[in-house]
C-alpha cells in the first residue's frame, strides 16, 4: 500500500498541470498573500488526486489479485528424481518442470522429455499470440532416446540469448555431458520451447528445463506500458492552456504594479488602511503574488479529472454498442485505449491490411494448373472438374505428384478425434485449404516428420534447365487478375551424398547464436536449384460483408485509403477494384512505380509525380501502385519525392511490403501532419498498428495479436464506419465543448475577481468566500457538463447518411484558437454583465461583501445553466435534471450553509432570496447575458447556416433529409519537416466528394503484366531429401 501511494504520487507530480496547482496550493499557505482560505485550492486538489488515485488503485488491486493467483499456482518440479509441488513463483532457472495434459506452462521451458514414442507434440498458444490453432513442438535431437529414468542424472549446459519479447524466435544451444552425449552442440529453436501461458495439448505429460522465469519470460518481456498517444485535441488544449497562462502572467504583472502604485499613492491617505511605515524587503511581491493566487483559477483545476472521466465513458459507449457486435462470432468491440476516442473523428488516412482485414480469410481451393493443363476454369471449382478427377483415377504421374506436394508441404497438424476422423490444425489458412482440398481428392495427409515451406512464383527462376514455365507464369497472372491467391509447387530429388554434405553445413548454421536465421537461409539456398515446377494452385478469399460500402462511405467523409499488403500486385489491384478502393477506368487511373535499380525507380517516380502535378482536366480517381522493392529504393534515395507523392495521393496500393515497411509508411504520413489510422488482423500488422495515431485490430482467424496490440479492436471491417463516423465524431464534438466550457466557467469567475479589484484598491481582495470558490469548479458547474457526454448534435442516421460532415472534425472546426477566442469573449462579456448589474443593483444597499459575492455567484450559476442549455442539442430527462436540478442543488447547499453560524455565510441566502431585488437582478443578468447570445445564434442558423445546421433543421422540422452538397476545405500548409529531407511544399487538401486529381494528356498508363521475380522476397528455407514445395509467404 505504501509503495502504491508513493508511486502514484510520484507519477501525479510529474504532470505539469498538477505541479502548477500544487505550487498554487503551497503559496496559499502563506497567510500574508492568500486572499482566500487555502482550503479553496487544497480541497479540489485533494479531491482530484483522490479520484485519480482511486481509479489507479482499483485497477492495481485487480492486477494484484490476478498476479497472486498466477504466482501461487501449484506446479510440479523434478528434483533428485522425485516430483514435488512448489508455487509457480518459486521456480528457478534450471529447474525441471513436469507438466500434464491441459496444464498451463508456468515459465519458459526447453522441452526435454514427453510421453509417447513420437518426439513431437502439440501446444495451444492462444493466450500468448491469440492464434487458436495448435503448434508443433519438438524434443531436441540430443534428448531423443534418453531413458526417462535417467532424467535426474542429466547434466549439461544451456546457452540462451538475452531475454527478449520475440515469441517467434529462440536461438540457443544445448550441450549434454557424457555419458549422454559426447559434448556435441545441439542447436535449439522456438520449436524446442514451451512458453509461459501456453497449454499442453494431446500429450499425457512432458517436462522441460526452465530458462526464463518471472518478468524475463517472453510473455513478461512483452508486457509493458505503451507509449501514451497525444491526440490532436490534447495538443491544441496544451497550446491554449499555455496561452491562458501567458495571459494570466501579464494580468498579474499589470495588476501587481497597479496595486503597488495605488498602495504608495492612495492607500496611505486612507485612515482605515494601516500600512507599516517600514515594510520588509518582499513587500513588492505581496500584491503580485496575491493576484497570482486570485487569477490561478483561469486554468480550471477540474479539467483533468473531468476529461479523464468522460474519456472513460466514451470508451464504454464503444464497448456497449450492440450494432458493433459480430453476430457470427459474438465478438464485441473493445477500447483498450480510453484516451484517444476524439482522434477517431479526425482521421485523415486509413492504412489497411488486405487478407483477413478486407477479406474473410476463409480460404477455398478453386482452381489449379498442373503442367500446362488448367482445372476448374469451366465451373470455378477444381474439386468438381471431371478432367482432374479422371486424371487422378488414371494415376497421372504429374497430378499425383502435385497432390502429394500439396498435401505434405505445410505446417499443418493432423489430429485424430475420438471417432477416428482427422481434423487439421493450421497456422496458415492457405495451408489448411490446400490440405483439405487434397484430402477431398483422395490424397489424405496423416502426418510427417518435418515441415516444408517456400514462397510463390519466386521459385520459377530456380526451375531446372529446359523446363518451360511460360504456362505457369501465365496461370499465375490469370489467377491473380481474378483476385485469387496463387501458390506454386515444385520438387527435386536429392542424392544422399548431396544431402549429407548439406546437412553438415545446416547444423553449423543452426548452432550459431548471432544471425542464425540468415545463416540458415544462406545454407538452404544451396538446395534451391534445378527444381521441377509441378503447377500452381488458386485459392479464393472473399471480401467481408460491407467492405465496399464502408470504404465508399469513408471516402465520402474525406478519408484517404492506402492498402499495405504482402500479396502480389495483380491480386492486390483486383481486390482494390472490387472493394471500391479505386475506380475502374475511365473514371479511375492507376499509376505504377516499379524498377529494380535506383535509376529505374527514380524515373518511374518522377513520371508519376509529373502526371499528378499536371492533372488539370476532368477529375479522376487516381492511385499509385508500388511494390516493396521499389518502395525500399524510393524511401531511401528519393524520400522527398515520395513524401510529395504521399501528400498528393488519396489512394495507394503498396504490395509485397514487409511489416517494417508498413510501419515506415505510417511514419511518413504522420510526418506530414496527417492523423493516421492503421487496421489489420495479424501479427505482421502489429508494428503498423502501434506506429499509427490510432491502431485498430480485427479479431480474426489469424488470432488476436493485432487486436491485443491495438487501441481498439472490432470484429469486422465494416464496423470501422460506425467507429469513426458515430463514436469518433460524437467524442470530438463533446470533448470540444467540454474543454472550452471548462475554461469559460473559470475565466468568468476570474474576470469578476479582476473587475472587483478596481473598486477594492487593486489590493487582490477576493469577492467570493472560500467555500463558494471551492464548490464552484467541483460541484456547481461540473454536473451539467458531465451529462453532456450523451448529447448528440445529429442523429446517427443523419451522420451515416452524410459522412462528409466529418470534415468539421478533421479540420478542427470546433476547437481551435478562433472558437476558443469566442468562448473567451463570452466569458469576458458575461463577467461584465454580472459585475455591472450586481454592483449597480446593490450600490445603494447596505450589503455585506459576502452578500454581494453571493449575488454575483448566483448570476454566474444562472448564466452557465442557460449556456449549457443553449449548447445542448438533444435534450433528455437526464440532461434536464442535471441542468435545472443543479440550480436547485445550488440553492439547497447554500441554504444549508446559511443555517450554520460558523460558516461565514450565516443567514445570507435567506435574506437574499426574500428580497425582490435579488430575483430582479437574476432576471436582468440572464436577459442581458443571454439575449445577445441567442440573437447571434438565431442569425447564424437562419442566414448563415452550416451544413450541420441545415441537417439539424431538417431533423427538427421532421422534413426530408436534404442533400447538403460538398464541403469545401481550406488548403493547409505543412508545418512539420520530414527527416532527413525537409519538405516545404504546401499540403493542399481536396474537397469531400471531389477526386484530388484529374486526367492529364501526359498521363502514363501502364499495363500490369508479368514481371521479374523479386529476389528481395526470397522463399523461406525448406528441408527435404526428396521434394521441395513453394507456397505463398503471407505477409499481408
From TrEMBL:
It catalyses: ATP + H2O + phospholipidSide 1 = ADP + phosphate + phospholipidSide 2. ATP binds at residues 353-355, 431, 485, 565-567, 656, 662, 684-685. The chain crosses the membrane at residues 20-36, 240-262, 743-761, 773-790, 823-843, 849-869, 881-900, 920-939. GO terms for biological process: phospholipid translocation. It comes from the Eukaryota. The active site is at 353 (4-aspartylphosphate intermediate). GO terms for molecular function: ATP binding; ATP hydrolysis activity; ATPase-coupled intramembrane lipid transporter activity; magnesium ion binding. One of its GO terms (cellular component) is plasma membrane. Its main location: membrane. The keyword Magnesium applies. Mg(2+) binds at residues 353, 355, 681, 685. The keyword Phosphoprotein does not apply. It holds the Pfam family Hydrolase. Residues 707-946 form the P-type ATPase C-terminal domain. Its EC number is 7.6.2.1. Its cofactor is Mg(2+). Residues 974-1036 are annotated as: Disordered. Residues 1019-1030 have a biased composition (Low complexity). It is a multi-pass membrane protein. Keywords: ATP-binding, Magnesium, Membrane, Metal-binding, Nucleotide-binding, Translocase, Transmembrane, Transmembrane helix. It is found in: Membrane. Belongs to the cation transport ATPase (P-type) (TC 3.A.3) family. Type IV subfamily. This is Phospholipid-transporting ATPase. It comes from Brassica oleracea var. oleracea.
